[in-house]
């Protein structure tokens, strides 16, 4: 599941909306919406994301959060390490090969550490 998929599911559950009801209202198939929630589809188009925001009638902050989550929810990531250090290339490849072996708490730790270090550089 992607961060966007997790949020969409939470919004549906909070409002008591089924996957089929939401899919029908957005004019997409329930199979597509399910795949989007489970991370088997890439990020939605800008138009579909706007329809989702309108469907849930969310306020500005939550609309911005949905947009941010969509930007970080592509389940098929490509990392271009051209021009970076050999260590960066090795790290990217190790992460790609081993991310499925990590425990959820390890992924959370690494994510927060990456964010902390990246923010301290800028």
Write a concise keyword list for the protein shown above:
122 residues; 7 helices; 434 Repressor (Amino-terminal Domain)
Q: How many structural domains does the protein architecture include?
A: 2
The CA-CA distance between the termini, in Å, is 30 Å
Order of helices and strands: HHHHHHH
Give the helix/strand class.
mainly alpha
CATH superfamily of the largest domain: lambda repressor-like DNA-binding domains
What does the radius of gyration come to?
17 Å
According to DSSP, the number of beta strands is 0
Please describe the biggest sheet, giving its number of strands, its sense, and whether it closes into a barrel.
none
Amount of beta strand? under 5%
CATH architecture of the largest domain: Orthogonal Bundle
Specify the overall morphology: elongated
**What is the number of helical segments per DSSP (H or I, 4+ residues)?**
7
Mean pLDDT metric: 92
What multimeric state do the chains show?
single chain
CATH topology of the largest domain: 434 Repressor (Amino-terminal Domain)
Given as residue ranges, the uncertain stretches (5+ residues, pLDDT < 50) are none
CATH class of the largest domain: Mainly Alpha
